[in-house]
Amino acid sequence: KPFVNPFGITLNLKHRLDNIAVDLYECQKALRYFMNRLNRKLLKGRYSRGKQKLNVIPTYNVGKMKERQHYHLMVDIPKERNTEDLTNIVNNCWSKVQQSFGKAYVVKVYSDGWFHYSTKLKSSKDFVDCSNLFLA
């Protein structure tokens, strides 16, 4: 269990950006940009100097027809952050991403339920995004 203070985050992505469909590559790029901003905001100099990075398990999901592409993240957050503070930080970082749609859903994880929910792969298009996965 690499997570000390786990939080679950759900991020919805746009269908189109500048009249071009948002594909898997754009989604991965958006998550990478978001995680860089979140790491920088929460870890400050420790992240900038390459000494520390947030543990994250990202799961990419595509809903049924006309549903949004989205990510379920399980992120280990530094202890000094509460849910309300983290929600504001996450929404601020997510609003800076071009492909973002709406506000993020942030919840404190108390059991393995979120992990099992976020890693359930309902279709062949759902997967754990190993390009953005990080476990120290």
How far apart lie the N and C ends?
A: 11 Å
Give the count of helical stretches.
Answer: 4
Sheet of most strands: 5 strands, antiparallel
> How much of the polypeptide forms β-strand, as a percent range?
25-35%
- Which parts are unreliable, with pLDDT below 50 for 5 consecutive residues or more? none
Q: What string, H for helix and E for strand, traces the elements in order?
A: EEEHHEEHEHE
Helix content: 25-40%
From the alpha carbons, calculate the radius of gyration and give it in angstroms. 14 Å
Going across the biggest sheet, name each strand in turn. Answer: 6-1-5-4-7
Give the strand tally.
7
Indicate the overall shape.
globular
Structural class: alpha+beta
Write down the overall mean pLDDT: 85
List the helices and strands and how they pair.
Layout: E1 6-13, E2 16-17, E3 20-21, H1 24-43, H2 45-48, E4 56-62, E5 69-76, H3 83-95, E6 100-108, H4 113-118, E7 127-128
Antiparallel strand pairs: 1-5, 1-6, 2-3, 4-5, 4-7
Helix pairs in contact: 1-3
Core attributes:
five-stranded antiparallel sheet; 136 residues; alpha+beta
Please provide a written account of the structure.
This protein is globular. It has four helices and seven strands. The strands form two sheets. A five-stranded antiparallel β-sheet has the order 6-1-5-4-7. Helix 1 crosses helix 3. 32% of the residues lie in helices and 28% in strands.
